[in-house]
Design goal:
The protein is about 35% helix and about 20% strand. By secondary structure, the protein is of the alpha/beta class. It folds into 2 domains: about 140 residues, Rossmann fold, CATH 3.40.50; about 70 residues, no CATH class. The strands form 3 sheets. Strands 2-3-1-4-5 form a 5-stranded parallel beta sheet. About 25% of the residues are buried.
Length: about 230
């Protein structure tokens, strides 16, 4: 039987906006940086990293056992090895990839007034190192992808557009829909998302705003299907 729990894995460089999106998704967030601060109060201590990641995994499993259907792992996950480490028969992985350029991340790091000069330097070096290590997500990794586009909290009511992941085919209102179809659902984001879950399961690739500023219908031959 397929796992019913969803682990949303943030993927991206430090300062790429992962934590901002993670907090807006509405699910419990497990953040290794916060674990480091609670454990030893520093940004990074190499010999403590095994403990950090053991705690992170325990927190993820505990949140699922507590009854949560979805958990967000707010970490960089820029290599396949890191992402593979979270494979489990207990949950399904969904990648939330932030594609912010290294230069933008470096600018944000340099502007961090809450860090001292030494910590800003360490953050800058981490950004540079992870940029060099970055491995794009491949189809063979078997990870569904959720692409945030100007993500907003679930209000007010408006039309939301969802697209399906690869190889997903469903029949809605007697109409076959697939990755070439955009589904239009009206409501708050949370309400529209829940309806999408009910119709197609807990997988989609992208959600769009009411103004459609990110929606290029030329990419979807079947056009928009309005869900009543």
């Amino acid at each position: 039987m397929e796992p019913t729990k969803l682990l949303y894995m943030m993927v991206g460089l430090p300062q790429s906006g992962k934590s901002t999106i993670a907090r807006k998704m509405g699910y419990p967030v497990v953040n290794p940086d916060s674990i480091r601060l609670a454990l030893h109060g520093e940004q990074f201590i190499g010999q403590m990293e095994p403990y950090v990641w053991a705690i992170a995994r325990t927190m993820v499993e505990a949140l699922f056992l507590a009854g949560h259907d979805a958990v967000v792992l707010d970490a960089t996950n820029v290599t396949r090895a890191r992402r593979d480490a979270w494979k489990s028969g207990k949950w399904e992985r969904i990648a939330v990839e932030m594609d912010e350029a290294e230069g933008v991340c470096q600018q944000r790091a340099a502007a961090r007034e809450d860090l001292n000069e030494e910590d800003r330097k360490g953050l800058s070096e981490a950004i540079e190192r992870m940029s060099e290590q970055y491995e794009p997500i491949l189809d063979e990794e078997d990870i569904e992808q959720f692409v945030p586009q100007e993500f907003h909290p679930p209000e007010p009511e408006q039309n939301w557009w969802f697209t399906l992941g690869q190889n997903h085919i469903h029949v809605i209102d007697g109409v076959k829909v697939d990755r070439d179809t955009v589904l239009q659902i009206k409501g708050t984001f949370g309400g529209a998302r829940d309806k999408m879950f009910d119709l197609c399961g807990r997988k989609w690739s992208t959600q769009y705003e009411a103004d459609r500023k990110h929606l290029n219908l030329d990419l979807f031959p079947n056009g928009i299907h309005i869900v009543e």
